[in-house]
């Protein structure tokens, strides 16, 4: 019997589905479901801006109101992707301006955004509401001014860790003089001072403002004045505190914080002097998120603050917290879901902080809801990893960075294979994993066997041979993003598992032994992959067997990209070189 | 290890031709036996020996890698530890502030003369410098260099020479040619070191006191000497010209 729902009913049902993964499944059922789904999708997510053309996206989703795009590979965050590689927002903005003028929200991550892009956004989308740029670059404060001046219904303007050409603080004065609909403003990554009076007036005429993240140029006095005008804030990123402590300023600040009864998230706190911390005590009991990762505060001042944060769900902190501080977190912050511990010095040799694997063990024991971990530590042990896995099988994201490459278990001198095996085995919901320390191919065999839900995996300085890559590509069923650097495998595993790559979003390989010939072969065999060789020297001038520096492979229906710089090579670039003498079956 | 791969996985349609993978098969265990054979001239896979153990639990034997560069700390490896650049710059600035403060305290005990007068501008007590970009004429990929890790010009020039031209005899640098050591600062080689300052002018590196330089530099460029002729002239020459009659 052919049961068909009237399309209006189907549309109504599908409109309740928010998750894009579910919607993707819905669209695979049959043609009519595909059509209905695509006409009702409002929030579109494109994980790789080169996987599909802007025109195709606009065509498929005529009701799109929100677009999220990601550009450069994740390792670009660590300077592994040379400047000029790509990830340009312009073609997307240009296409949407013409075909999706009702677009209201744009979120971009790791993309190159110019002032022209921002000006086009401001000019084209009449009801533009949300602009979030994360780790983007290529624009100046002039572009931001254009958005501020023109987008009358702007609700969200967030610049997160962007590299912005800062031409001064004037941009803030471009917001309309009438009351604004601003809900969230984040300019924490800008350097220049904005005029405090401009900021005060903006805050005063933004009654809906809930989230405000200031840049380090805003002083304690400025902060106090702003808090007085916006006691309704739920999220605050402070300016810097490094001025000397003045008792009057301190008590005014304390009072301002006391009046912020709805504050849930606190960040910024650059170089906060410990003497200022008591001003925060009144908001601690309500905090669910605290980012102290730029606060060079040490023990025991840190502990005094943290033991008051009983509702804390997310904590980002530097290794200055030491094992002792984490022990306190374990006993006081029972709601903790996410912990990130960052290094306080940029290089290994200078590290002398008392943070060891024991700190994470404490938290895994004391915090039953812990599910997301990012932990930088000099050394680790298998025993600790096994204990953590036993304590917290509910972990979904586990990123351990043993800062010293190739560091074995420092108590037994063994590789950390057993430890990561425990993590993979016990944490059945694990979606994201970063491994480090001394690891043999065996570790990857265990991961491949057990980590069935892992979608993103990061590997550095690990493994012995092609087996490691073979395990990962043939075993990890849910793998979508794999990034590997400085591992000693060659061509075999990559070529044997070529078809796996079409089931993944992307694969990054750098400083491994994959040869140019293999890249060509892979490219010829898999036309729906873009195989990009990123190398200082044009690979065509070298022997086929010579290894290439960096390879970025991603599935795409958009074909070869047309904006490659000279140091990116793909098979499409030099068609006359094409097929080599190598045998292809 | 190779046999496990070959047996029972014969689904693969790909014929691996000769010479595809190095040494004609799965590379043997490379990391621990040291040596630069696989990479040859262009660099080598970093191995455990490159990273001296913090707790000195493993002996750092330097004997087995022939002609290799000295063991480096992980701070000299690109992108390691994996900290985002915003955070890295912040850490580096913190270090600079700490050492600047220590310097100041030490300096207060010494007698200062005019030449060492500090002209650095500090914002909130911090020396605002981090990684800046370096490009070289003829080289496609730019680099970044940490100015805080340097305290004088020769130091910086040496780092850049190492970065773009290996100075060890018998090695091929990034430009793919054997080169003799450069003299980036004295104008005697085919390249000069230049920088763009906060006003957008391109200047020759080396004219102003180091501290003044690091507060005004935006980015660096290793420029062909032939192209550098139209550049902003040296400081003294500019001053002299103002004093003398215009030509």
Q: Number of DSSP strands of chain B?
A: 5
- The dominant shape of chain B is globular
Low-confidence stretches of chain B: 1-43, 53-75, 111-128, 167-179, 233-239
Which structural class do you get from the secondary structure elements of chain B?
alpha+beta
Note the run of SSEs of chain B as H and E: HHEEHEEHEH
Low-confidence stretches of chain A: 576-585
Q: Radius of gyration of chain A over alpha carbons? A: 26 Å
Write down how many β-strands of chain A occur, each being a DSSP E stretch of 2 or more residues: 23
Strand content of chain B: 5-15%
In helices, the fraction of residues of chain B equals 10-25%
- How is the largest sheet of chain B built, in terms of strand order? 2-1-5-3-4
In percent, how much strand structure appears in the residues of chain A?
15-25%
The level of helicity of chain A is: 25-40%
- How large is the count of helical segments of chain B? 5
The chain pair forming the largest interface, with residue counts per chain, is: A-B, 87 and 68 residues
Compute the separation of the termini of chain A in Å. Answer: 46 Å
Could you report the average pLDDT of chain A, rounded to the nearest whole number?
93
Oligomer: heterodimer
- CA radius of gyration of chain B is 24 Å
User: What structural class is derived from the secondary structure elements of chain A?
Assistant: alpha/beta
Query: How does the major sheet of chain A shape up?
Result: 21 strands, mixed
Domain F-box (chain A): 5-46
Main location (chain A): nucleus
Pfam families (chain A): F-box_5 (PF18511), Transp_inhibit (PF18791)
Pathway (chain A): Protein modification; protein ubiquitination
